[in-house]
Amino acid sequence: MVKQEGASSDVMRNNAIVVRDLRVRYGQREILHGINFEVPANETLVILGGSGSGKSTLLRTLVGLETPSSGEIWIRGKNFAGIPEPERDELRKKMGMSFQSGALFGSLTVGENVALPLREHTQLDESTIQIIVRLKLDQVGLSGFENFMPSQLSGGMKKRAAVARALAMDPEILFFDEPSAGLDPIIAAGLDELILRLKRAFKMTVLVVTHELASAFLIGDRMILVNKGYIVANGTPAELQASKDPRVRQFLDRVPEPEVAGEIDYLQMLTGESPPIRQ
Amino acid sequence: MPFTDSIGEATINGLAYVGDLARLTGGAVAANFTQPIWSKPLRWKRAVHQAMAVGVEALPIVSLIAFFIGVILALQGAYELRKLGALQLVAGLVALAVTRELGPLMTAVMVIGRSGSSFAAEIGTMKVNEELDALQTMALKPVHFLVAPKFLAMVLMMPCLTVWSDFMGVLGGGLFGVTNAGFTWGTYFHATIVALVLHDVLTGLIKSVMFGLVITAVGCQEGFSTGLGSEQVGRSTTSAVVKSIFAVIAVDLVFTALFYFAK
């Protein structure tokens, strides 16, 4: 909290998200080894990385689903990881998250899913909530689907509905976990278009985790590449494209990894650490 | 690992599990009784919905099982009582056994099978589908949102189901009494009422409330501790049923002993 003072406080204020020396461990194994980056307000940051690179853990930590072992996450000028739970909940109301699977509540209709945060966190009357629900569903191209159950929707529609739910509270920051995973190219392009439109129309800060290169270059203002729990590149799409770093080139040029021989190698690949010696 | 170490580890794990159950129950009690006073409103709509599923929809099967148990008790009791020439005592035997023990216990077993397992499956599926994470990112607490209404529904419905189950058990005993032991329905019910004191019914009802708490806590806890992958949901459902039955019988033992010695 001391870092809020002085020169660094400007950085905290001028950026929607500032991450400083973030470390996350699962048990004894460290997954993220000191992550640093900033996301300026109204910009889209794409977090790139292969499977097991730690990018999903990074996103989960940013939205408060994992607890960092050390480091700071400044969101809208507050250290998200260090404030008490009620304050963190207040901050969460200004953040929207769209999960990879959509994570719509299966027992509620699409409309009720979108209405849920409004019913829980606001004193709005039912007719206003219904208007907002229709508006949000309209924004994601799902007008008229209020009374459908999530199980009746296709994969792409589920993700759109999840975006509508994430938008319900008019968040300032939107997080997307693999928005185009498991979708055909046309539907995936539609979702990219939606993200761009939301950013332009509502001046939102958007943070997208993906491994889809085409989509990343289309929507990202800035990009970071995560590899084995480290950030190996941070820059604009053009800067990444011009990078000569072998790890960046390997990812962008789609060079396959050498075969993983066994469990120990796999763990080493995931964590970038030497495996513990077995007793 | 030495034997003593494994005993120690099992004890610590067991105590940690009981601690988890207590934390869950405490959270639900706070959400149901203290928080509505100054902050978050009670989720009575969801609780009513749960109460319908837990209580009202269980009535047919609970009735049938309790009725059968009543008949079985009467048959088994009569087998011995007939030798003593005391067949008329069958009404009292059924009444006491049903209200003090088998009514609450069999109801709990039925509720475990119907609701305890479904709590674990529901919460486990939500965990696998990232729905619990979604709740958290929306600043909603799973305990407040999911668990509290289940506790409220169970605590209210278990005694109701148990009273009904007691009645059906007595009815089952009555069927034997009327057809084979020279009772009329009137004399059978009279004999039942004479044999029972309020204490018998109350101890059964107190136990049923405790069973309700235990079943909900174990069902929800198993749901929350579901691992990743859909096959884990099946595992936690099975585990919820097995652990609930064990926990209910353990609680039954404790309370029965308590009522016996505190008398």
Fold topology:
The complex is a heterodimer of chains A (279) and B (263).
Chain A: H1 7-14, E1 15-26, E2 29-40, E3 44-49, H2 55-62, E4 70-75, E5 78-79, H3 85-92, E6 95-98, H4 110-121, H5 126-139, H6 155-167, E7 173-177, H7 185-202, E8 205-210, H8 213-219, E9 222-227, E10 230-235, H9 237-242, H10 246-252, H11 263-271
Parallel strand pairs in A: 3-8, 3-9, 6-7, 7-8
Antiparallel strand pairs in A: 1-2, 1-4, 4-5, 9-10
Chain B: H1 3-38, H2 44-54, H3 59-84, H4 90-128, H5 131-137, H6 142-180, H7 185-195, H8 198-224, H9 230-262
Could you please describe the fold and organization of this structure?
The complex is a heterodimer of chains A (279) and B (263). Chain A starts with 6 loop residues before the first helix and ends in an 8-residue tail after the last helix. Chain A has 279 residues and is an alpha/beta fold. In chain A, helix 4 (110-121) runs parallel beside helix 6 (155-167). Chain A has helices at residues 7-14, 55-62, 85-92, 110-121, 126-139, 155-167, 185-202, 213-219, 237-242, 246-252, 263-271; strands at residues 15-26, 29-40, 44-49, 70-75, 78-79, 95-98, 173-177, 205-210, 222-227, 230-235. In chain A, the strands form 2 sheets. Chain A has a 6-stranded mixed β-sheet, sandwiched between helices. In chain A, strands 2-1-4-5 form a 4-stranded antiparallel β-sheet. With 263 residues, chain B is an all-alpha fold. Chain B has one domain (3-262). Chain B contains 9 helices and no strands. Chain B has helices at residues 3-38, 44-54, 59-84, 90-128, 131-137, 142-180, 185-195, 198-224, 230-262. The model of chain B has no long low-confidence stretch (mean pLDDT 92). The A-B interface holds A 60, 63-65, 89-90, 92-93, 95, 97, 99-101, 103-106, 116-117, 120-121, 175 and B 125-126, 129-131, 133-134, 136-140.
